[in-house]
Amino acid sequence: MRQLAEDRRADAPDLDDSDACVPGSVNERVSAETVFTGTDRIRVLLAAAGGGKSVLLRHHLSDGAARWLAGRAHDRAHPSVPVLIRATTLAAEPLLVQALEAAVIDELGPYGLREAPTADFFTRPPYSGTPWLVMVDGLDEVSDRATRVALLERLAREGDQEPSTYRFVVATRPLPDGELTRLGPGASRFELQPFTAADLGTYAQRCFRNLPNRDGHVRRFTAGLEMSGLHELARTPLMASMLCPLYAADPARPLPEGRTGAYRSFVELLYEQNTHKSVRATHAEAIRVLTDRHQIPRDQQATEQASRLVRDELPDLIDHVAHERINGNTAPAIAILAAHLHVQRPDKVRPALWNAFLGDLLRPTGLLVERAGDFHFLHQTLLEYHAARHATRDVQARAELLARLFPRRPVPAGDDATPSRVPPSSVQSLAIDPSYLGFLLNGLLTPGDRIATDTVRALDELAAHDAVAAVRLLSHQMRMRTGLPDDFMARHFAAFSRNKELAGYRIVAAWYLAMLAGHRDEGAELLAGLVDDTALPFENRVRAATQLARLKDYRPRAAGFLLRLASDSTLPFEHRLNAGQALGRLAEYRHEVIALFASLLDRAPLPLYGDFYERMDMATVLAGWGDERGTGLLLRMTNNKGLTVRRRARAASGLARLDDERVAGPLAAMTVYDDPEDDIYGPVLAARALTWLSRYREEGARALARIASDPDAWDSLARVEAVEFLADVDGHREEALALLTRLAEAGTARRHAAKALAKRRPTA
Question: How many angstroms separate the CA atoms of 471 and 463, rounded?
């Protein structure tokens, strides 16, 4: 998992760069459990479709229950009690407490819950000083945007309540148009990373544990992924959990091509191997039980015919239920089924018995799970797959879908021109979740007929109207192995990568061109050209080199580019530093950038860059890589009393981030000032750095509170910043908000404090 430094804009270049951190795009890689720790009120867990969000939430729920049952009630790493709720459930209930009660009853009722929680159960913390950790799963499954935005604003208000009863972790796919900003600036974001190649190998070994020569099967499975083009897609946990059983069921059978093929094969496998539920036998028994209730032969015959028709049409009926659900029909699945033309209840069968029969047909399929008295698809992507099957079930349905996704402008009477597509702002395909759109496009393209040709033409017109929208759409579909023709994709990605108006999207296009079979070298050369393109923002040039390094044969060349940029004395220092950091992330080349930075530090002053902060930044990078030359320089700066406190505190901060306790004493001394009219921002920085040292966190928090409370300190902005830093220290948010409230009421700091308070407590 990685923690995002800032909200990813909807229009930001979209690139799977999980193997390479882009400078400035993330703070750091962290353990998946990190999202549940801390004291900030709202955190967001982001991942693409099938990325493992729900599994992680359920794992934490199970682990949390075990921890509390074992009596570890004061585990500082997890100071909260988890409770899981689906976003759709929360959106349907006007009050959070009622929604949580309903969620607990639905979840635990089948497992022996004997009575509902008391009316005040969720209105107060489970323990003194211990909030509920409300894990909201599937925010993206709230299909109506207005409802989703209202829910986000509601969560922001709940998170802002004092005293604190709840913390929230909201799991979702990425959402458009900055929707997540409704949660307020304090909501931190974490992104689940896909499997690495090693992770996938380990997972496959567990799945193949009952096969002879397990390691050999893992190698053949990995080779099969490469041949079928599924190697990148298999890094998604859900896809891996589908592909491994498919291989294990028949190792001699080639893996399916593309995501839709994988889902089709997986659904077939569910029916073929769901022997413990015996789908066919269970369905036959359900028909027999329903029919045998009648003694009159005519009634028996009518019931048997109607029930067999439903059984025979069940796959298409499941598709229909999915399509209704994805388009906003919130009725129970049984009610949706019962309203279908192919589900005609015989007159002599009571509605309750007929509905029970429909449930008996759905239950053993393995595609749906029963929860809260209704049937839900096993996963959102299974819902999307089946909904797309319905939307593309025949030629007429496909033609209607194409017209909805890419509507045409009307042509005036007598005009022989071919109708063109409407501008991208009116194209519905851009508003559909990329995962669902991928299934829809596959349904439009698969038969290879006129509609497939028209679909490709519509995408051509989209690219001509809006290249940014097109490169985003095509890159999403490329990652999901949607069945767009390779020559079509190559033509557009090559054109996009040469389009100078696309800025960072040129890197996206060149990368995905390199991922296409037969176009690796072309894409790599385009990436190399972007590294040398001085018209590009420098961070994009570094990003192009970083992506080039992901192509094994081009890694040395990419490293050479980065070393050249880091060594170029004509470039601004921050550019050289960014290039060096990117090179250092390539483990086998880190020694080269360490040697370069160390040689620059040995020169006094640095050529062209003699500023203290530049030397400090370079030393901080070296220290982070474990190089004693960087650590030593930071220590010397920290202890140099000829420097200002502000500079000494900044130098010490680099080591405090590494939990180096050698700076604890100097930092503690720096938090004390004799004259309140002095620059107190240095002491504030020192106190904050002290909180980063695990054994001195509370001492740093006390220093921040002391400085913020000093009415004689002239620097009101520094006092407010001290409070804001305090709010970020685990367990001190409420203390910080109380301090901000007092500062906002009177004194020289009131304007800055009021502004900070409004940011911490966003209004509805």
Answer: 8
pLDDT value at 278 more than 90: no
CA 347 to chain centroid, in Å, comes to 50
| Residue of 145, 166, 171 lying closest to 156 (CA atoms) | 166
Q: At 89, is the secondary structure helix, strand, or coil?
A: helix
Residue type, 613: Y
Nearest one of 456, 499, 448, 449 to 474, comparing CA atoms: 456
Which residue is listed with tokens 């010397």?
Answer: 636
In angstroms, the CA 213 to CA 225 distance is 19
> Which tokens belong to 465?
């109207």
Q: For residue 342, count other CB atoms closer than 10 A to its CB.
A: 14
Candidates 450, 380, 441, 443; CA nearest to 405 is 441
**Secondary structure (3-state) at 332:** coil
Listing DSSP states for 582-593 in one string gives HHHTSGGGHHHH
Average pLDDT value for residue range 627-656 = 94
Is the pLDDT at 26 greater than 80, yes or no?
Answer: no
From 174, 162, 163, 170, select the one nearest 187 (Cα to Cα).
Answer: 170
Amino acid at 648: R
Q: What is the phi/psi pair of residue 493, to 5°?
A: -65, -40
Yes or no: say if 192 and 53 are a contact pair by the CB < 8 Å rule: yes
Cβ of 311: how many Cβ atoms within 10 Å?
16
241 vs 381: CA distance, rounded Å: 13
* 479 sits in which H/E element: helix 467-479
* Residue 21 pLDDT > 50: no
Containing 671, the helix (H) or strand (E) segment is none
Q: What angle do CA 270, 274, 280 make, to 5 degrees?
A: 100
Burial, 567: exposed, middle or buried (Cβ in 10 Å; 0-12, 13-18, 19+)? middle
Q: Counting every residue, how long is the chain?
A: 764
CA distance 581 to 621: 7
Which DSSP symbol is given to 65?
H
Decide: 615 and 606 in contact? Cβ < 8 Å. yes
Read off the pLDDT of residues 240-277 as tens digits, 9 standing for 90 and up.
999 999 999 999 999 998 889 999 998 888 776 654 45
**Distance between CA atoms of residues 542 and 530, nearest Å:** 9
Class level of CATH domain 31-191: alpha beta
Q: Which helix (H) or strand (E) holds 248?
A: helix 237-249
Model pLDDT for residues 136-176, shown as the tens digit of each residue: 999 988 878 889 999 999 999 888 887 778 999 999 988 87
Q: How far apart are CA 28 and CA 624, in angstroms?
A: 12
Give me the residue label for tokens 């698809």.
Answer: 377
| pLDDT tens figures, 443-485 | 999 888 999 999 999 999 999 999 999 999 999 999 888 999 9
Q: Which tokens hold the place of 748?
A: 């020289």
pLDDT at residue 576, rounded to an integer: 92
- Provide the token pair at 682: 């240095």
CA gap 110, 192 in Å, rounded? 31
- What average pLDDT does range 97-119 have in this prediction? 85
CA dihedral over 80, 83, 84, 90, signed as positive or negative: negative
Contact 29, 22 (CB under 8 A): no
pLDDT in tens, 421-435: 555 544 566 678 899
Residue 110, preceding bond cis, omega within 30 degrees? no
Q: How far apart are CA 189 and CA 2, in angstroms?
A: 9
Residue with tokens 């093929």: 261
> What 3 state SS string does 143-174 have?
CCHHHHHHHHHHHHHHHCCCCCCEEEEEEECC
- Backbone phi, psi, residue 91, to 5°: -65, -25
User: Cα(135)–Cα(673) distance, rounded to whole angstroms?
Assistant: 44
CB atoms within 10 A of CB 741: 15
Q: Report the C-alpha gap between 17 and 511 in whole angstroms.
A: 10
